Amino acid sequence: MATAEVLGKTESINGKRYYNVQEGVKYPSVTTIIGEMTDQSFLDKWRQRIGEEKADAISKFSANRGNVMHQLCEYYLLSDKETSKEKLEEALEKISHFVIEEGYSQKEYDTGRSLFFNFYTGGLFDTVTDVISVEEMLYSHQMGGFAGRVDNIYRNKEGRPVILDFKSSTKPKKRAWVDNYFLQISAYFIAYWEMYGERPGYGEIWISNEQDGFPQKFTVSYDDVKTYGKKFLQYVKEFHEKIRLD
């Protein structure tokens, strides 16, 4: 059995992110597989339209404000304080130190904090009553193997695990735009089931955007997982075949 330190380690191999899942066993990340096997030409066109320098700056800002939002969610959900107000106060105190340590700008902090508050004021955290794990690495041996780190797994009122991922964006998302998120949740769903022998009830995607204070929540049903999970596993197989050919 690999140690927790080994299991949590990631590394870049030929520009692609891999997780160490067992001694001597490395699996590509879920996001790496999705990025490699789905059409990303829109990103290339976007970079060409606005220029590499501006695109890099926007990407860095988006990643950093997203990290602030994610870290606040983690601090809040892991707090052992009794009330939501106390949990919030603790999370805000901790994030101030995190931002300084990471060297984030004031604007990155302010935006990430605002994105977090969209979830908080929207009452979404009230639905998470029993946290199973936060930032847990999940993996599966199917189709050559894959791994990923899921933002949160909690147990709902019916006692079933729920796979939850937080997303940030500049504007609200239409359902047709988030197929890759459904693929990602389905991958985590499959891996959790394989690792623990317990089928999750469903998955959730929470999206907070910069334009308004109304967070979006997309539910990934078991029927969705059967559709998107099958598609994702085919991508896993094709990814491994492609890597071998390369």
Helical coverage, percent range? 40-55%
Task: Give the biggest sheet.
Answer: 5 strands, mixed
Order of helices and strands: HEEEHHHHHEEEHEEH
Number of helices: 8
The termini sit apart by: 31 Å
DSSP, total strands:
8
Strand order of the largest sheet: 4-5-6-7-8
Strand content of the residues, in percent?
A: 15-25%
Class by alpha and beta content: alpha+beta
- Rounded mean pLDDT is 91
Tertiary shape: globular
Rg over C-alpha atoms, rounded to the nearest angstrom:
18 Å
- Spans where pLDDT lies below 50 across 5 or more residues: 1-5
Short description:
With 246 residues, this protein is of the alpha+beta class. Helices cover 51% and strands 23% of the residues.
Q: What structural keywords apply?
A:
single chain; alpha+beta; 5-stranded mixed β-sheet; 3-stranded antiparallel β-sheet; 8 strands; disordered N terminus
